[in-house]
């Protein structure tokens, strides 16, 4: 019998630190050492050592002690401290590009966004602009003594694990090696589909201290996220983790066919959801603009104004789009066995009322009806959610491997 491999104490400590950080972030209220030991199953002695390390490195701090009983020592809450580590989110979307730095305690340390129609742009030019935008942010963080632990890059297309953008049809980009761009190499960014990044931003405590407004789902809930704009993307979240799929393309709900004799989609199929509920499709169907003009912000504003004013043509277009949404979402719910849907992007402009209408109609179209409850919500993080999710993806590098960023003195 061969000798058993010795347990690496650093690996064990790293794992325990990761579990402790994860528990602190997802907690609804500040936790004490005793709370952490009880929740994680670690001994009080081990937890005391781990907390001391986190305090020494400025990752957490002690709050004001609070007496929990008439007798005994007051309980000292532990609070995630800002300013020490952060993640940077990068995004290139159909409506612009930008960057954002996010702290462990959820504070935004810097953000910039340029609104522009990105259809048919040159990727080399756009990545150069993103590089120039991000470099000053990195310099400011360095001067503040804040370490960038990781970065995420959100893109509106199919991205492979080896950092290739296979296609982003609504940008007109194909087969791009993302590692050739300086900003990606410098930040060692992990690229992914923008809908999946946006879904991460909705998960409370995923990589930042849990915020009170993140109350639609819990940390380990399962849900479907829809990202709607010119194109329609999606993500399936199972037990608090985004389902990637074999090639990383899971969740492409925009390319579920809702009409076999419908218009031809940019993907080559007939009657995809995107052909009825995407921004260009809505505006062209309403006769307000065509082609590139249909993707602009002015056309969208005219569409929304007419919808609010009760324009019958626009109302009919919206009704048809809602029919398509119900069909596609019901298929996704039945396939994935998930009953919570977050409807983000363009369709957030239509408000909570639309979410209620969708939820009501879906109940009659999913398996297990009428006993099964289907919930549809407008996402808590609605403005540039992919930027926040990309920054959180960067922060997860620290949470998953804290000792790498906590060198011994």
CATH superfamily of the largest domain: ATPase, nucleotide binding domain
**Estimated structural class:** alpha/beta
What is the H-and-E element order? Answer: HHHEEEEEHEEEEHEHEEEHHHHEHEH
**Poorly predicted ranges:** 1-6
Report the span from N to C terminus. Answer: 40 Å
CATH class of the largest domain: Alpha Beta
Main sheet: strands, sense, barrel: 5 strands, mixed
Number of E strands: 15
Counting DSSP H or I runs of 4 or more residues, the number of helices is 12
The whole-angstrom Rg is 23 Å
Helix content: 25-40%
GO biological process, one term: regulation of DNA-templated transcription
GO molecular function: DNA binding
Protein name: NagC family transcriptional regulator
Pfam family, one: ROK
Topology of this structure?
Layout: H1 9-26, H2 33-40, H3 44-56, E1 60-62, E2 78-80, E3 85-93, E4 96-103, E5 108-115, H4 123-143, E6 147-155, E7 158-159, E8 164-168, E9 173-177, H5 182-187, E10 190-193, H6 194-201, E11 223-228, E12 232-238, E13 241-242, H7 274-277, H8 279-285, H9 297-308, H10 312-336, E14 340-345, H11 351-362, E15 375-377, H12 385-400
Helix pairs in contact: 1-3, 2-3, 6-12
Explain this structure.
There is one protein chain. With 409 residues, this protein is an alpha/beta fold. The protein has 12 helices and 15 strands. α1 crosses α3 (44-56) and α6 packs across α12. The longest helix is centred in the last third of the chain and has 25 residues, at 312-336. The chain is globular and about 70 Å long. Residues 1-6 have low confidence and may be disordered.
């Amino acid at each position: 019998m061969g000798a058993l491999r010795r347990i690496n104490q650093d690996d064990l400590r790293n794992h325990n630190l990761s579990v402790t950080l994860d528990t602190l972030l997802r907690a609804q209220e500040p936790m004490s050492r005793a709370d952490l030991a009880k929740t994680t199953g670690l001994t009080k002695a081990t937890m005391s050592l781990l907390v001391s390390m986190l305090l020494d490195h400025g990752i957490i701090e002690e709050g004001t002690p609070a007496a929990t009983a008439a007798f005994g020592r007051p309980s000292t809450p532990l609070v995630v401290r800002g300013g020490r580590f952060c993640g940077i989110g990068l995004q290139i979307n159909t409506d612009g590009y930008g960057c954002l730095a996010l702290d462990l305690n959820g504070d935004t340390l810097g953000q910039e966004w340029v609104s522009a129609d990105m259809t048919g742009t040159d990727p080399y030019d756009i990545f150069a602009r993103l590089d120039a935008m991000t470099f000053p942010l990195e310099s400011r963080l360095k001067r503040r003594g804040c370490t960038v632990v990781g970065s995420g890059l959100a893109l509106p297309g199919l991205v492979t694990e080896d950092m290739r953008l296979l296609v982003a049809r609504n940008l007109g980009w194909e087969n791009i090696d993302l590692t050739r761009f300086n900003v990606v190499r410098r930040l060692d960014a992990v690229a992914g589909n923008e809908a999946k990044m946006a879904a991460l931003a909705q998960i409370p405590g995923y990589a930042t201290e849990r915020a009170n407004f993140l109350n639609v789902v819990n940390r380990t809930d399962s849900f479907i996220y829809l990202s709607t704009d010119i194109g329609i993307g999606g993500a399936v979240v199972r037990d608090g983790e985004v389902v990637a799929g074999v090639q990383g393309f899971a969740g492409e709900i925009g390319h579920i066919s809702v009409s076999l004799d419908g218009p031809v989609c940019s993907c080559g199929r007939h009657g995809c959801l995107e052909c009825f509920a995407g921004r260009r499709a809505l505006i062209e169907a309403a006769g307000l603009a065509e082609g590139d003009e249909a993707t602009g912000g002015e056309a969208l504003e005219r569409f929304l104004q007419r919808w609010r004013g009760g324009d019958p043509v626009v109302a009919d277009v919206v009704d048809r789009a809602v029919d398509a949404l119900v069909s596609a979402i019901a298929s996704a719910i039945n396939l994935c066995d998930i009953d919570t849907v977050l409807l983000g992007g363009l369709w957030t402009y239509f408000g909570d009322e639309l979410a209620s209408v969708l939820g009501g109609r879906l109940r009659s179209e999913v398996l297990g009806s009428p006993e099964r409850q289907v919930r549809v919500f407008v996402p808590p993080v609605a403005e540039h959610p992919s930027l926040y999710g990309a920054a959180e993806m960067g922060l997860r590098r620290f949470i998953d491997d804290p000792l790498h960023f906590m060198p011994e003195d």
